[in-house]
Amino acid sequence: MTTLKPKPFVKWAGGKRQILDKIKEYLPLEFNTYYEPFVGGGALLFDLIPEHAVINDSNKELMNVYEVLSNYELFIKMCKELNIHERKNSEEYFYKIRDLDRDIKKYEKMTNYQKAARTIYLNKACFNGLYRVNSKGFFNVPFNKKERVSTYDAENLLLIHTYLTNNDVKLMSSDFSECVKMCQENDFVYFDPPYDTLNNSFTSYTEEGFDKKQQERLANVYKELDKKGVKVMLSNHNTDFIKELYEGYNFHVIKAKRNINSKGNKRGSVEEVIITNY
Ligand SMILES: C[S@@+](CC[C@H](N)C(=O)[O-])C[C@H]1O[C@@H](n2cnc3c(N)ncnc32)[C@H](O)[C@@H]1O
Asked: How close is the Cα of 58 to the center of ligand 1, in Å?
């Protein structure tokens, strides 16, 4: 009998569902606690459903959804709120909900389950499921212009709720370096940071503000964990910069190429790589 596994509840940029089978080829055979410091939509977490896990993402709105999903009462209230969003969905309604964070005092008064429903609704009704905020931290992705929106699969959310509550899963919303501080020998960390870009300038950054300096900081954390006897796996683009940062570790190149630059003639594709220390 196969157990039903949860699936990500959001569409997340850099989500790993398409290359999950490749990633799974390179997992360690055994480990104690599972750490995922850049959990995003949790594609690998939900596939592995580890008994002991620490999951983290610096995106507070996203981690609030995981928090709400781990409390039955709040989870049900969130679903009721989502039903309202689905019923009222329109361009005007989308912008009304999206712009709730513009009034900080009012936004702070919203309950966590209302905020979680807003995050899921915006993810499903916005253009391409992107998560992007402007310099003031306001969500600024436009409406996808679809008349209907389906925001959740009740059975899937129940599987997630059951997984989070029946196991020892710690939720955090912090920087990746904080998340791995408690790691011990034989724990396993999967790092899936925002991708390195092909632009080699030190000032370039992605939507999440993850620039080359952050990639370097991450490589240093990777090396410290390695010294401690922690099993570490990291996925990224196979760029020269990444090859340099992780020189000496095991590189497993994934053949499926994705376009990463959609701007005019700079369109290019780059390989993905999985780097392990075991
Ligand atoms: C490539 S995505 C992870 C995708 C995820 N593996 C999935 O399958 O959906 C990278 C994530 O890192 C988060 N992030 C960016 N900077 C971070 C930081 N300094 N510490 C922790 N998380 C960070 C982003 O919010 C984003 O969710």
From this structure: 7
